[in-house]
Amino acid sequence: MNLFNIINEIEQVDPEIHERLSPRRDAIKNITSFGSKVALAAMPFALGTMFKKAYGQTNSSVVDVLNFALTLEYLEAKFYNTGSAGALIPAANASYINEIKDDENQHVSFLKGVITQLGGTPVAEPNIDLSGGNGSGNGPFAAALTDYPTFLLAAQAFEDTGVRAYKGQAPALKGNQVVLTAALSIHAVEARHASAIRKLRFDLGQSTTTKPWIVSTASKGNDTGNALVDGNYDGEQNVTQGGVNLTTALGASVSVATGAFDEPLTTEQVLLLLKGSFLVS
């Protein structure tokens, strides 16, 4: 995530930003020109301070959304940190995975910093079982940290869930355009992660066993090609967009109508997927 781009886009996102930030506009423009002079680690706190001054005390619901996002980022960061610590990742793929790992750790730091500066309290890192076994260490993804193809399968499910989760939170943030812009920036990076993981899986020949897109058929709601992760794609069987049933109004097949759109996930849906499995209850 390029934090400088967030600042550069603030004026385009909020038509009242001139009034909100004046006389802080010069300070913001100076920050964007610092480049390497500003330590990346300090940026979340600088951004958070500006957000708070510009928009006042953040509504608690916004902090709740950011803490929800932070919980997801804790999970992803731990997954990649643990997977990268040993000899699991082939040398040829290490640059891909390390880039994703670094992004997830930056997301954690960024969200914690902004939540704090907006007057909230970041949630603590939860008890995480990367096997999905609710603390047993012997869940359905137990092989993810010893078997590289399974690691990539789990990574794709995590990234796709993250993309849909951020999309689902956008309506709750529409009242705070600056925070929404930051969240959407992370959303876009998660989507790029999902694309990179698919590339690695394609290189392993896994595209024949797990589809690069999520479709539904008449006989199966969420057909990923791998039953282990089908449940992570609940809701993708939707064929109605904008109130229009694409199969009846346009004659599209179920697979085309479902594969062409990515469905958002609510907080409740995400927690139902993760609690009692990856997030230990």
UniProtKB/TrEMBL annotation:
Pfam families: Ferritin_2. InterPro entries: Ferritin-like, Ferritin-like_SF, Pigment-catalase-like. Signal peptide: none annotated. This is Ferritin-like domain-containing protein. It comes from Mucilaginibacter segetis.
